[in-house]
Protein backbone atom coordinates (compact mmCIF):
# COMPACT_ATOMS: atom_id res chain seq x y z
CA UNK A 1 0.00 0.00 0.00
CA UNK A 2 1.34 3.41 -1.01
CA UNK A 3 0.29 6.60 0.72
CA UNK A 4 1.03 10.26 0.07
CA UNK A 5 2.92 12.12 2.78
CA UNK A 6 5.07 15.26 2.70
CA UNK A 7 4.87 15.80 -1.03
CA UNK A 8 5.32 12.28 -2.40
CA UNK A 9 4.24 8.64 -2.48
CA UNK A 10 5.69 6.42 0.26
CA UNK A 11 5.30 2.86 1.47
CA UNK A 12 2.57 2.94 4.10
CA UNK A 13 4.63 0.83 6.50
CA UNK A 14 7.65 3.11 6.31
CA UNK A 15 5.99 6.55 6.18
CA UNK A 16 6.39 8.59 9.38
CA UNK A 17 4.87 11.80 10.70
CA UNK A 18 6.41 13.69 13.60
CA UNK A 19 5.59 12.34 17.05
CA UNK A 20 4.84 15.98 17.91
CA UNK A 21 2.32 16.48 15.09
CA UNK A 22 -0.54 18.54 16.52
CA UNK A 23 -2.98 16.25 14.74
CA UNK A 24 -1.70 13.40 16.92
CA UNK A 25 -1.19 15.22 20.21
CA UNK A 26 -4.39 17.30 20.33
CA UNK A 27 -6.54 16.34 17.33
CA UNK A 28 -5.74 19.61 15.54
CA UNK A 29 -6.56 18.55 12.01
CA UNK A 30 -9.30 18.07 9.44
CA UNK A 31 -10.14 15.30 7.04
CA UNK A 32 -12.28 13.98 4.22
CA UNK A 33 -13.44 10.49 3.31
CA UNK A 34 -14.10 10.09 -0.40
CA UNK A 35 -15.61 7.09 -2.16
CA UNK A 36 -13.47 5.70 -4.99
CA UNK A 37 -15.08 3.28 -7.44
CA UNK A 38 -12.92 1.69 -10.13
CA UNK A 39 -10.21 4.30 -9.76
CA UNK A 40 -12.54 7.30 -9.82
CA UNK A 41 -13.16 9.50 -6.76
CA UNK A 42 -16.75 10.71 -6.37
CA UNK A 43 -17.60 14.38 -5.77
CA UNK A 44 -13.97 15.34 -5.19
CA UNK A 45 -14.56 19.07 -5.77
CA UNK A 46 -17.18 19.20 -3.01
CA UNK A 47 -14.85 17.27 -0.68
CA UNK A 48 -11.95 19.66 -1.35
CA UNK A 49 -14.18 22.66 -0.74
CA UNK A 50 -15.34 21.21 2.59
CA UNK A 51 -11.73 20.35 3.54
CA UNK A 52 -10.87 24.03 3.06
CA UNK A 53 -13.92 25.18 5.06
CA UNK A 54 -13.00 22.81 7.91
CA UNK A 55 -9.33 23.91 7.87
CA UNK A 56 -10.29 27.60 7.94
CA UNK A 57 -12.74 26.88 10.74
CA UNK A 58 -9.81 25.62 12.83
CA UNK A 59 -7.68 28.61 11.81
CA UNK A 60 -5.43 26.46 9.61
CA UNK A 61 -4.40 27.68 6.17
CA UNK A 62 -6.49 26.26 3.34
CA UNK A 63 -4.78 23.24 1.74
CA UNK A 64 -3.47 23.59 -1.82
CA UNK A 65 -6.20 21.96 -3.92
CA UNK A 66 -3.84 21.22 -6.81
CA UNK A 67 -1.51 19.35 -4.50
CA UNK A 68 -4.37 17.45 -2.85
CA UNK A 69 -5.73 16.48 -6.29
CA UNK A 70 -2.26 15.31 -7.36
CA UNK A 71 -1.92 13.32 -4.14
CA UNK A 72 -5.35 11.69 -4.57
CA UNK A 73 -4.64 10.74 -8.18
CA UNK A 74 -1.24 9.27 -7.26
CA UNK A 75 -2.65 7.22 -4.37
CA UNK A 76 -5.63 5.97 -6.38
CA UNK A 77 -3.36 4.96 -9.29
CA UNK A 78 -0.87 3.22 -7.00
CA UNK A 79 -3.54 1.16 -5.20
CA UNK A 80 -6.10 -0.21 -7.67
CA UNK A 81 -9.23 -1.46 -5.88
CA UNK A 82 -12.81 -1.92 -7.10
CA UNK A 83 -14.21 0.11 -4.20
CA UNK A 84 -12.14 2.20 -1.82
CA UNK A 85 -12.16 4.71 1.00
CA UNK A 86 -9.85 7.58 0.11
CA UNK A 87 -8.86 9.47 3.21
CA UNK A 88 -7.38 12.97 3.08
CA UNK A 89 -5.95 14.19 6.39
CA UNK A 90 -4.58 17.71 6.88
CA UNK A 91 -3.18 18.70 10.27
CA UNK A 92 -1.56 21.64 12.03
CA UNK A 93 1.80 19.85 11.70
CA UNK A 94 4.53 19.59 14.35
CA UNK A 95 3.72 21.75 17.37
CA UNK A 96 4.07 22.30 21.11
CA UNK A 97 2.62 19.70 23.49
CA UNK A 98 -0.22 22.02 24.52
CA UNK A 99 -2.99 23.61 22.52
CA UNK A 100 -0.86 26.42 21.03
CA UNK A 101 -0.03 25.70 17.41
CA UNK A 102 3.51 25.36 16.00
CA UNK A 103 4.93 27.19 13.02
CA UNK A 104 6.63 24.42 11.08
CA UNK A 105 3.83 24.00 8.56
CA UNK A 106 0.95 21.62 8.00
CA UNK A 107 0.94 17.88 7.33
CA UNK A 108 -0.92 16.41 4.34
CA UNK A 109 -1.56 12.68 4.26
CA UNK A 110 -3.62 10.80 1.67
CA UNK A 111 -4.30 7.08 2.00
CA UNK A 112 -6.67 4.52 0.51
CA UNK A 113 -8.23 1.41 2.00
CA UNK A 114 -10.22 -1.19 0.10
CA UNK A 115 -13.88 -1.17 1.04
CA UNK A 116 -16.89 -3.40 0.47
CA UNK A 117 -20.36 -2.37 -0.67
CA UNK A 118 -22.56 -1.74 2.38
CA UNK A 119 -25.73 -3.82 2.89
CA UNK A 120 -28.92 -2.12 1.65
CA UNK A 121 -30.21 -1.84 5.23
CA UNK A 122 -28.74 -1.68 8.71
CA UNK A 123 -29.53 -1.31 12.42
CA UNK A 124 -28.84 1.89 14.39
CA UNK A 125 -29.01 2.91 18.03
CA UNK A 126 -29.46 6.26 19.72
CA UNK A 127 -26.87 7.30 22.30
CA UNK A 128 -27.24 9.48 25.42
CA UNK A 129 -24.34 11.78 24.48
CA UNK A 130 -24.99 14.99 22.55
CA UNK A 131 -23.63 16.89 19.59
CA UNK A 132 -22.86 20.46 20.61
CA UNK A 133 -24.46 22.66 17.96
CA UNK A 134 -22.89 25.71 19.66
CA UNK A 135 -19.36 24.30 19.96
CA UNK A 136 -16.30 25.73 18.21
CA UNK A 137 -16.08 22.62 16.04
CA UNK A 138 -19.76 22.39 15.05
CA UNK A 139 -20.06 21.55 11.39
CA UNK A 140 -16.31 21.04 10.89
CA UNK A 141 -14.90 17.66 9.89
CA UNK A 142 -11.99 17.56 12.31
CA UNK A 143 -9.77 14.72 13.43
CA UNK A 144 -11.12 15.21 16.99
CA UNK A 145 -13.32 12.14 16.48
CA UNK A 146 -12.98 10.23 19.73
CA UNK A 147 -16.63 10.92 20.69
CA UNK A 148 -17.58 9.11 17.51
CA UNK A 149 -15.24 6.25 18.35
CA UNK A 150 -16.98 5.80 21.72
CA UNK A 151 -20.49 6.01 20.26
CA UNK A 152 -19.73 3.65 17.38
CA UNK A 153 -18.26 1.10 19.80
CA UNK A 154 -21.55 1.27 21.76
CA UNK A 155 -23.46 0.65 18.53
CA UNK A 156 -21.30 -2.37 17.68
CA UNK A 157 -21.87 -3.81 21.18
CA UNK A 158 -25.59 -3.66 20.44
CA UNK A 159 -25.39 -5.24 16.99
CA UNK A 160 -25.82 -1.93 15.15
CA UNK A 161 -23.60 -0.22 12.57
CA UNK A 162 -24.30 3.40 13.51
CA UNK A 163 -25.12 5.53 16.56
CA UNK A 164 -27.36 8.58 16.27
CA UNK A 165 -26.96 11.72 18.38
CA UNK A 166 -29.38 14.41 19.45
CA UNK A 167 -27.97 17.91 19.95
CA UNK A 168 -27.89 19.76 23.28
CA UNK A 169 -31.51 20.87 22.72
CA UNK A 170 -32.70 17.27 22.28
CA UNK A 171 -33.20 17.66 18.51
CA UNK A 172 -32.27 14.94 16.03
CA UNK A 173 -28.76 15.63 14.69
CA UNK A 174 -26.64 12.96 12.93
CA UNK A 175 -24.68 9.73 13.25
CA UNK A 176 -21.01 9.19 14.06
CA UNK A 177 -20.20 9.21 10.35
CA UNK A 178 -23.49 9.76 8.59
CA UNK A 179 -26.49 12.06 8.25
CA UNK A 180 -29.99 10.86 9.05
CA UNK A 181 -33.25 11.17 7.11
CA UNK A 182 -36.79 10.24 8.14
CA UNK A 183 -40.00 9.75 6.15
CA UNK A 184 -43.13 11.35 7.67
CA UNK A 185 -46.47 11.20 5.83
CA UNK A 186 -44.58 10.08 2.74
CA UNK A 187 -42.27 13.14 2.78
CA UNK A 188 -38.50 13.00 3.36
CA UNK A 189 -36.98 15.21 6.08
CA UNK A 190 -33.45 15.68 7.41
CA UNK A 191 -32.20 17.94 10.24
CA UNK A 192 -30.87 21.37 9.17
CA UNK A 193 -27.16 22.14 9.44
CA UNK A 194 -28.05 24.45 12.37
CA UNK A 195 -28.73 21.24 14.38
CA UNK A 196 -24.93 20.89 14.56
CA UNK A 197 -24.66 18.09 12.02
CA UNK A 198 -21.93 17.96 9.41
CA UNK A 199 -22.99 19.38 6.05
CA UNK A 200 -22.66 15.92 4.51
CA UNK A 201 -21.93 15.82 0.81
CA UNK A 202 -24.20 12.82 0.30
CA UNK A 203 -26.83 14.62 2.38
CA UNK A 204 -26.67 17.70 0.12
CA UNK A 205 -26.94 15.58 -3.02
CA UNK A 206 -29.81 13.56 -1.55
CA UNK A 207 -31.66 16.78 -0.66
CA UNK A 208 -31.10 18.14 -4.17
CA UNK A 209 -32.03 14.92 -5.98
CA UNK A 210 -35.00 13.76 -3.87
CA UNK A 211 -36.51 17.09 -2.80
CA UNK A 212 -36.07 16.17 0.89
CA UNK A 213 -36.83 19.01 3.28
CA UNK A 214 -34.55 20.33 6.01
CA UNK A 215 -36.68 20.24 9.16
CA UNK A 216 -35.87 20.70 12.82
CA UNK A 217 -37.04 17.40 14.38
CA UNK A 218 -37.17 15.99 17.92
CA UNK A 219 -35.07 12.87 18.59
CA UNK A 220 -38.23 10.85 19.27
CA UNK A 221 -39.32 11.28 15.66
CA UNK A 222 -37.37 8.03 15.26
CA UNK A 223 -40.14 6.28 17.23
CA UNK A 224 -42.79 7.19 14.66
CA UNK A 225 -41.06 7.76 11.31
CA UNK A 226 -42.42 5.50 8.57
CA UNK A 227 -38.92 5.02 7.18
CA UNK A 228 -35.42 6.04 8.26
CA UNK A 229 -32.26 6.15 6.19
CA UNK A 230 -28.62 7.23 6.50
CA UNK A 231 -26.35 8.98 4.02
CA UNK A 232 -22.57 9.10 3.84
CA UNK A 233 -19.83 8.93 1.28
CA UNK A 234 -19.37 5.20 1.78
CA UNK A 235 -23.00 4.28 2.46
CA UNK A 236 -24.55 6.48 -0.25
CA UNK A 237 -28.18 6.01 0.87
CA UNK A 238 -28.66 3.11 3.29
CA UNK A 239 -32.02 2.10 4.75
CA UNK A 240 -32.47 1.49 8.48
CA UNK A 241 -34.34 -1.67 9.56
CA UNK A 242 -34.03 -1.18 13.33
CA UNK A 243 -33.72 1.86 15.60
CA UNK A 244 -32.94 0.77 19.18
CA UNK A 245 -35.72 -1.79 19.90
CA UNK A 246 -38.01 -0.61 17.09
CA UNK A 247 -38.12 -2.79 13.98
CA UNK A 248 -38.86 -1.22 10.60
CA UNK A 249 -39.81 -4.32 8.68
CA UNK A 250 -39.44 -4.31 4.93
CA UNK A 251 -36.66 -1.66 4.91
CA UNK A 252 -35.86 -0.21 2.44
CA UNK A 253 -39.45 1.02 2.32
CA UNK A 254 -40.87 2.50 -0.88
CA UNK A 255 -39.73 6.10 -0.34
CA UNK A 256 -36.20 5.07 0.63
CA UNK A 257 -35.98 2.57 -2.25
CA UNK A 258 -36.93 5.31 -4.70
CA UNK A 259 -34.36 7.68 -3.17
CA UNK A 260 -31.70 4.96 -3.51
CA UNK A 261 -32.58 4.47 -7.19
CA UNK A 262 -32.49 8.19 -7.92
CA UNK A 263 -29.18 8.55 -6.08
CA UNK A 264 -27.62 5.67 -8.03
CA UNK A 265 -28.79 7.09 -11.35
CA UNK A 266 -27.67 10.65 -10.69
CA UNK A 267 -24.32 9.75 -9.12
CA UNK A 268 -23.64 7.28 -11.95
CA UNK A 269 -24.27 10.02 -14.51
CA UNK A 270 -21.90 12.60 -12.97
CA UNK A 271 -18.74 11.76 -11.04
CA UNK A 272 -18.24 15.28 -9.71
CA UNK A 273 -21.71 16.73 -9.18
C1 LIG B 1 -20.07 13.28 11.65
C2 LIG B 1 -20.42 13.00 10.23
N1 LIG B 1 -21.64 13.31 9.78
C3 LIG B 1 -22.00 13.07 8.51
C4 LIG B 1 -21.13 12.47 7.61
C5 LIG B 1 -21.56 12.19 6.20
O1 LIG B 1 -20.93 13.11 5.31
P1 LIG B 1 -20.58 12.75 3.81
O2 LIG B 1 -21.88 12.44 3.11
O3 LIG B 1 -19.94 13.99 3.30
O4 LIG B 1 -19.67 11.56 3.81
C6 LIG B 1 -19.84 12.15 8.03
C7 LIG B 1 -18.91 11.54 7.09
O5 LIG B 1 -18.13 10.69 7.40
C8 LIG B 1 -19.47 12.43 9.37
O6 LIG B 1 -18.24 12.13 9.81
From TrEMBL:
Keywords: Folate biosynthesis, Lyase, Pyridoxal phosphate. Pathway: Cofactor biosynthesis; tetrahydrofolate biosynthesis; 4-aminobenzoate from chorismate: step 2/2. It catalyses: 4-amino-4-deoxychorismate = 4-aminobenzoate + pyruvate + H(+). SUPFAM superfamilies: D-aminoacid aminotransferase-like PLP-dependent enzymes (SSF56752). Its EC number is 4.1.3.38. GO terms for biological process: amino acid biosynthetic process; folic acid biosynthetic process. It is an enzyme of class 4 (lyase). Coiled coil: none annotated. CDD domains: ADCL_like. One of its GO terms (molecular function) is 4-amino-4-deoxychorismate lyase activity. PROSITE patterns: AA_TRANSFER_CLASS_4 (PS00770). Its cofactor is pyridoxal 5'-phosphate. Belongs to the class-IV pyridoxal-phosphate-dependent aminotransferase family. Homodimer. This is aminodeoxychorismate lyase. It comes from Streptomyces doudnae.
Amino acid sequence: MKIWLDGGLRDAGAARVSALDHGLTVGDGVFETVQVAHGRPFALTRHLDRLTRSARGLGLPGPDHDEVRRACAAVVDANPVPLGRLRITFTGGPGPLGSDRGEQGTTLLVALAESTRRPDSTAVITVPWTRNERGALAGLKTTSYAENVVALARAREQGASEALFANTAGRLCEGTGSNVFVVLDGEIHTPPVSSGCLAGITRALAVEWTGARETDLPLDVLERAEEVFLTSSLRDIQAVHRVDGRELPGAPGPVTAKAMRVFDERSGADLDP
